[in-house]
Amino acid sequence: MATIYQVSELAGVSLATVSRVMNKNTRVSDKTKQKVLDAMEQLGYKPNSIAQSLASNCTNSVGILVSELHGPFFAQMMAGIESELRAAGKHVIITTGHSEEDKEQEGIEFLISRRCDAIILHVEAVSDDYLIKLSEGSTPVYLMSRYVEQLKDNCISLDNQLGGYLATKSILNQGHTQIAYIAGPQFKADAFNRLEGHKQALTEAGVKFDPALYYIGDFNETGGSKALKHFIDEKLSFTALVCANDEMASGAMKYAREHGYNLPNDLSIVGFDNVIFANYLYPTLTTIDNPVGNMGEMAAKLVLKDVYQNKNLVINRFFEPTLMQRDSSAPLIK
Amino acid sequence: MATIYQVSELAGVSLATVSRVMNKNTRVSDKTKQKVLDAMEQLGYKPNSIAQSLASNCTNSVGILVSELHGPFFAQMMAGIESELRAAGKHVIITTGHSEEDKEQEGIEFLISRRCDAIILHVEAVSDDYLIKLSEGSTPVYLMSRYVEQLKDNCISLDNQLGGYLATKSILNQGHTQIAYIAGPQFKADAFNRLEGHKQALTEAGVKFDPALYYIGDFNETGGSKALKHFIDEKLSFTALVCANDEMASGAMKYAREHGYNLPNDLSIVGFDNVIFANYLYPTLTTIDNPVGNMGEMAAKLVLKDVYQNKNLVINRFFEPTLMQRDSSAPLIK
DNA sequence: AATAACATGGCAACAATTTATCAAGTCTCA
DNA sequence: TGAGACTTGATAAATTGTTGCCATGTTATT
Predict the structure, then answer these.
(1) Using a CB-CB distance cutoff of 8 angstroms, which residues of chain A are in contact with residue B96?
(2) pLDDT value, residue B16
(3) What is the pLDDT of residues A126-152, one digit of tens each?
(4) Which residue of A62, A70, A250, A327 is the best one to mutate when testing the B interface, meaning the one whose CB has the most B CBs within 10 A?
(5) Sign for the pseudo-dihedral over CA of A224, A228, A233, A236
(6) What is the pTM of this model?
(7) Which of B292, B65, B271 is nearest to A277 (CA)?
(8) In 3D, which of B191, B220, B249 has the Cα closest to residue A276?
(9) In whole angstroms, what is the distance from residue A265 CA to residue A268 CA?
């Protein structure tokens, strides 16, 4: 690979001048500039980004930690972050945390040891205190879908409680009062807040939250199937089922169908996230739209603004979910 | 951040000794080793990976280029690659190519300019010649789901033709002979070979390939809907529909249901890839299992073996798809 | 013609490691 | 006690840039 020295030699200019052309700092005459650019072209010169990083103490890379690489939720988030950063010439280093405290910490340390200019985290197992301490270090930390008061300027969050509220409210509005709820793991802030919203809607409607109609799933399809099996095996009476995400809703739908339920007449089901396939289930899944792709883009913009001094970016740290009424939920038939 | 100098000072040993401890090359007495490790611990020393890369000409990073970040197919692939590399202390830099020639080239150049130790590509738009030329450069190139004869040692591929064959064969075995086919974009090798397999199965069964029952979709859900609409609008007669991937199959299923079809009795549908949600559609989708996660792991192993001298890895460059018979396809009712 | 402004060269310091080499010291064992 | 093996230090070169400084040369302005 060609080095800056070879470029300066071929162009017949000094090393400093080549550097000036590259960094657009000081003025260089158009003639000289062209000579240098031609030489670069001819040699196929690409600056060694490793050496640049060492000298400038800036790696042009942003670390991302997500729970899982697969799954439509994280995919949309990463796509949002990547497209925005890529357009600005930055790149992403992606790691996974698997929602386990030690793996999340390990992933974070890994990203920091790679000297990322900033890290964007979707962490679930690590404590608030750890995050606060972490952000006192030299690497700027940004949080997705998690709100920590002391770090509020660096949080991009969704009003999950509102989402949970909207989901249950839509079901209540359809006349249901016997409503089962499949929650996500309660150590995950998203899952906890969605449940809070569910309770809020119930309270508001004067319906008592029934712990028997509450089950904690794992956010996967199988968790949804298991949960519904549990409710049915317990011979509980309910006409609607609210799920903390679409995967569990689809698992529950499958189980319901296999056990003779006619959807949505026998059971109304609502999901959360509005992942792409929610619209291709049968019946199409009523769910809460989670603008996770936009949130990813916004996180990237926030980094570009804070860390890379990209001034003219308008930042919105809060996103609101909306109801997507489809066919899997319907008015209660008396 | 602490440097190696500070460690050597605190430990009271020379710089060379610290380096020896880190790189486990030469023997160092246990006593000295412990002193050094203690000093590192105390200072919270993390080697600067940038400087390491510069000096050792090895970045411990592998570049990955996929078409899209979202979508279950790529997610599973990336998850496979990442988990394997991560376990070996390497990390991944991920970029997208959007199946467009210039974007793919740009992405590749980007990864090379970051001095990745190797790059794993799932490219679709770029030519074979370009790839051959590329692999003559100093960065080792590996190809996923694309077979180029001259680079065969660096290709991890699926027998897509066999997959296409199996899909159509299963439908033929159920007595269908009027079979519509929704293909993927034919410049994509995967899509092309799946179609070849389809034709092969037809020929073998003495059924003529009917161009009228052939439509090129875009590999997305909407493409599947559009294709089926086309067949129906043309008033063509067919009892089965084979799709080149699961997304299009799910789009077609949705359209069929919305237009009064009773699945699978009125129409048998088969997909390809066996993405997770295929099993949660209604009816559950008969499809061809594509072990893309395993293929990702294998690509990572290949890199570990070739580039990082990890000897004891057994490499399998060819994968075979298998039929997943589910409920969306059924014997023809006469 | 004097002065200022601009363009460029040349040089050196710096970033944090790896790698190599040579010399010196320590220890073991016969 | 002396040979040989092992451990460690000291030092320097190499990696590929960035950055800043001062000197020099070239134009433009008044």
Answers:
(1) 79, 82-83, 86
(2) 82
(3) 999 999 999 999 899 999 999 999 999
(4) A70
(5) positive
(6) 0.91
(7) B271
(8) B220
(9) 7
